[in-house]
Amino acid sequence: MKTFYLKLILASLLVSLTSCQNANDGPSADVQDKPFKYRVLHWNIESSGNEPQVIAKQLNDLGAADLIALSEVDQPQVYVESLSKRFIKRYSFLLGASGQFQNRENQRLFLAYNQNRFEAVSHLDMHKYEKLKLNDGAHASPFVVNLKDKVTNQEIVVVVCHFSLRNSDLRQTQALALRKWAKTIAKPVIAIGSFNFDYQIKKQTGNTAFDEFTKDGIWKWSKPEKLVDTCWLAGEDGKDRYPDTIVDFAFTSNFPNDWNSSSKIIVREGDFPDDDQTSDHRPIELLVEKK
Length: 291
Known about the structure:
Elements: H1 2-21, H2 29-32, E1 36-44, H3 52-61, E2 67-73, H4 76-86, E3 91-95, E4 108-114, E5 118-125, E6 128-129, E7 132-133, E8 143-149, E9 155-162, H5 168-183, E10 189-200, H6 208-214, E11 220-221, E12 245-253, E13 259-265, E14 284-290
Helix pairs in contact: 3-4, 5-6
């Protein structure tokens, strides 16, 4: 296990150092104007209630993507090995440092990126922004990854998020901090993950953290055409405690006018209610396109 993490850290450092050497190479206008299409996946795989080998197979069944973000990751090596075997020489992997716990399953954030399309420039766990703390030590801090498209030379920022479920005050601060941070970023940004914004489909409203995050239009929700429940949280009676509620989202910020995005919630046969081997969340897909 220690050898795996050492390799992962060394690989990340190598990628970052290589990328920094080319950071001053400016893109030509014709390269910047090239069309592209990115497929981005996110899945909260429920670290405390899954069988990693089962999840790994289901993840492979979702097909190839340019970016795969996972939250609540306890055994990352399982997904690294499975994706590497299924999609040979396609992915490089980055792992957030926070979300590691001694008395319960880890809930780390994970990003696989298409190494044939992107190179990693930098990555960090955002524990704090200005005086706002995004982590109280019992959560995973937003995982911020700066990527460079090898074809267009365009840099984008991807933020993998898992906001607090039960601590509403922390969730509110996380929403405020990430909104304030996004105002300062000049590059296109994707934020994707489990935000726990409790968006009620029938009422078309979220909680106060949703209102805070989407205030002023800094973040734009890539709202799916078909809205369905993204999480099954069973009560003592076995019924979903939050029916018809969306907690997993894809947001964009600072996108150029000629960039388009769309998303969908991936529903698989028999996915809800989940069992002790499968996740209690549904994956989401984001498509980003410049024609």
